[in-house]
Design a protein that fits this description.
The complex is a heterotrimer of chains A (222), B (220) and C (240).
Chain A: H1 9-13, H2 15-47, H3 52-66, H4 70-83, H5 90-115, H6 119-127, H7 132-162, H8 174-185, H9 188-217
Helix pairs in contact in A: 2-3, 2-5, 2-7, 2-8, 3-5, 4-5, 5-7, 6-7, 7-9, 8-9
Chain B: H1 3-8, H2 11-47, H3 51-65, H4 69-82, H5 89-115, H6 118-126, H7 131-161, H8 173-184, H9 187-219
Helix pairs in contact in B: 2-3, 2-5, 2-8, 3-5, 4-5, 5-7, 6-7, 7-9, 8-9
Chain C: E1 2-11, E2 14-24, E3 29-33, H1 40-47, E4 55-60, E5 63-64, H2 72-78, E6 79-82, H3 94-104, H4 110-123, H5 139-151, E7 157-161, H6 169-184, E8 188-192, H7 196-202, E9 205-210, E10 213-218, H8 220-225, H9 230-239
Parallel strand pairs in C: 3-8, 3-9, 6-7, 7-8
Antiparallel strand pairs in C: 1-2, 1-4, 4-5, 9-10
Helix pairs in contact in C: 3-4, 3-5, 4-5, 5-6
The chains are: A mainly alpha (222), B mainly alpha (220), C alpha/beta (240).
């Protein structure tokens, strides 16, 4: 070890700063999930549409996003905005990037959820005179949500972890606060160890909470 | 391409793009190969019924999967020098991808092994095979089929994840994009090309994964 | 009430309905029988526009289906349909299943619909199961909820698509009894079924279909006791 002694004191003194960054991480992650859910729902409906001018672009959007790295998408958006002289904050650019990325995955999750619903449910709804939006609102989504919930929970954990990449376009999240702290304390390893622990605890706690909520909500028979 | 792009992106940049593509591929091949090796052991441990074997493996998998790749990279990049190794960025990058992918792959290995029914074990044992023989000749060949679709999916993830290694300055595809953006300020074009090259690597693989999955479903 | 003239229906290359014409009067109970694959279920589904037809006309209560000016949902709201596989909404209680469409489609007030729904559930003998979820009900009970659900829209016409085929034998009667009561109350009904006893007892008219055509129709006694057509005789010979 060449006499290296671990020294966590300086890092732990700055814990409030790190937790402030964690708050930003949570903030951007929750917003990403909510907006992506709306976009993903529209995406899923387009993906399943019989109209080619809705279906084909939606399909290519999903394929394009899922086959390129998030980091490249973030750079494309962040530096792209500055190239065409549009002023956006790095937070906004980061949020847009995360939404564009995650909405593609949610599109597929929601589509699978809707497709898991039996054809008879659609027929029963239509035969009662329900319109397409009514059918979606009252019959399909309540049932699909049960199917969608577990993969969407996983996706949310993924959003929290991958949102660390927005630190590369200078969003003040947990990862960036850690990086700054590492360079002022010269305790890189200790800093990143603490930051990693915060991430692990955060995702662990959230995924456990989501499981309990899911169990409570969906305990009713299906 | 429009005229102004040609003015500032030249043939040497094309070579740089290709070099980045090659380095990305190199990172992924090394990361995947080594990751597979670790995953095999961790996955076997995870599938074990002995608790003090399966539990540490489970912890390893959980911690790696519940922490950001970027933090894993920083930790490795800054930890290795503390242990007295001065390592090139390439080694730090491969080590990170190896550890990260091994955790995900271990779960695939575990799921594959556990998908093979107990009766296959019983049959092998009754023929006088030991654990390793049964695993090698009976269980693994069957589990392998199940592991292919998620395995290919993991490779796609690995290719995309390798872009993160650009952060410590290794000259892979995304790093090339950053350098050329700084030089030309043509971020849309440069990152458009970078994205296209990633797509060129990943899209065929995602078709393969889809095909393999459908075939597996069809065969029951 | 229902007028169908010369409809043709294809599933890809498969010619399922080969020129079917049919008229059903108000208050009439028509039972359609025939071997599987004869197109009888398809015909029923066409009456609700769950399947579009390639040619021919379908009129329900003076409104033509498959016409660009027709609001198909309005027609469907007037036509009740009961399915072989019940198709209850699993996330809603029996009561909520019955109440959904009147509240959402007809925009009727909640309290009023609740009264109607409870009355209908009592009518089908399920007054003590109103808060049960479909998964907690037997097949026969589920099917009776499905009938109540369709009735709560106050339909002018009821379609029954092999509604007892998925039921255990001992549960068939409770569903048929509800349908008999409905027929006695004067509901216009088109019923596809394999229950010949029901057809004989309840039908005003029996229609025998085979290979996408109406082969023979008439009073139940005529069809069952004096079938004219060779194919009808063969079919009845096999199942009776």
């Amino acid at each position: 070890m060449h006499g290296y002694t671990f020294q966590f004191r300086d890092v732990l003194l700055e814990l409030p700063t790190l937790l402030d960054g964690a708050l930003t991480t949570l903030h951007i992650s929750v917003l990403t999930l909510l907006i992506s859910f709306v976009v993903g729902t529209l995406g899923a409906l387009c993906r399943m549409s019989r109209l080619p001018w809705l279906r084909v672009p939606a399909t290519w959007y999903v394929e394009l996003i899922r086959n390129t790295p998030l980091l490249v998408q973030l750079f494309f958006i962040y530096f792209g905005f500055s190239q065409i002289d549009i002023q956006v904050s790095s937070y906004t650019a980061g949020l847009i990037g995360l939404v564009v990325n995650n909405a593609a995955y949610l599109t597929e999750i929601i589509r699978a959820g809707i497709q898991a619903i039996h054809k008879g449910q659609f027929e029963a709804g239509y035969s009662l005179g329900l319109s397409f939006p009514q059918l979606m609102r009252y019959v399909v989504f309540p049932q699909a949500f049960r199917v969608i919930y577990p993969p969407m929970s996983n996706q949310f954990i993924g959003i929290i972890l991958w949102s660390s990449l927005v630190s590369t376009i200078s969003v003040q999240d947990l990862a960036l606060r850690g990086k700054e702290l590492a360079s002022t304390t010269f305790r890189s390893f200790e800093t990143y160890a603490v930051v990693t622990v915060i991430y692990v605890v955060m995702t662990f706690a959230i995924s456990a909470t989501l499981k309990v909520i899911g169990y409570r909500v969906f305990r009713r028979p299906a | 391409m429009p005229q102004y792009v040609q003015d500032r992106l030249n043939i040497y940049d094309a070579i740089l793009f290709l070099q980045g593509l090659g380095n990305t591929a190199l990172l992924c091949v090394c990361g995947l190969g080594l990751g597979l090796l670790i995953a095999l052991f961790v996955g076997l441990a995870r599938a074990s019924r002995v608790r003090w074997v399966s539990w540490p493996a489970g912890l390893y998998i959980e911690v790696v999967r519940d922490s950001p790749l970027l933090m894993q990279l920083y930790l490795i990049f800054f930890a290795l020098p503390l242990l007295g190794f001065q390592v090139p960025v390439f080694v730090a990058g491969v080590a990170t991808l190896m550890i990260n992918s091994s955790a995900f792959m271990a779960e695939i290995v575990r799921a594959g092994i556990q998908s093979v029914g107990r009766d296959q074990w019983d049959a092998s044992r009754s023929l006088g095979m030991g654990y390793i023989q049964a695993m090698r000749w009976v269980v693994m060949p069957q589990a392998f089929r199940i592991m292919i679709p998620p395995g290919v999916g993991l490779l796609i993830g690995l290719i995309k994840d390798s872009s993160v290694i650009s952060v410590i300055g290794y000259l892979e595809l995304t790093r090339v994009g950053q350098i050329l953006t700084e030089k030309t300020f043509l971020s849309f074009q440069v990152f458009g090309i970078v994205a296209a090259l990633y797509f060129f690597l990943c899209y065929p693989l995602s078709r393969v994964a889809l095909y393999a999955e459908r075939r597996l479903k069809a065969s029951g | 009430m229902v007028k169908v003239t010369d409809i043709h229906k294809y599933f890809g290359p498969l010619h399922v309905l080969k020129g079917v014409s049919l008229a059903v009067a108000r208050g009439e109970v028509v039972v359609i029988i025939g071997p599987s694959g004869s197109g009888k279920s398809t015909l029923l589904r066409c009456l609700n526009y769950l399947e579009p037809v390639q040619s021919g006309e379908i009129w329900i209560d003076g409104i033509r289906l498959d016409h660009h000016k027709t609001n198909i949902r309005q027609v469907r709201a007037e036509v009740g349909m009961v399915f072989q596989s019940f198709n209850l909404f699993p996330h809603l209680t029996a009561l909520r299943n019955v109440m959904l469409a009147p509240v959402v489609v007809r925009k009727r007030p909640d309290g009023e619909v609740r009264r109607d729904a409870l009355a209908l559930l009592a009518k089908v003998g399920l007054q003590d199961k109103t808060d049960a979820f479909p998964s907690q009900l037997s097949g026969g009970q589920q099917q009776r909820v499905a009938i109540a659900r369709a009735l709560c829209m106050q339909p002018k016409l009821m379609l029954f698509d092999e509604v007892t085929s998925a039921l255990d034998p001992e549960l068939v009667r409770e569903v048929l009894d509800v349908m008999k009561q409905l027929a006695r109350d004067g509901m216009t009904m088109v019923v596809v079924t394999h229950e010949m006893g029901f057809a004989r007892e309840v039908a005003d008219r029996v229609i025998f279909m085979d290979e996408g055509r109406i082969v023979e129709q008439g009073k139940p006694a005529d069809i069952f006791d004096r079938p004219q057509n060779q194919r009808t005789r063969e079919f009845l010979g096999k199942i009776l």
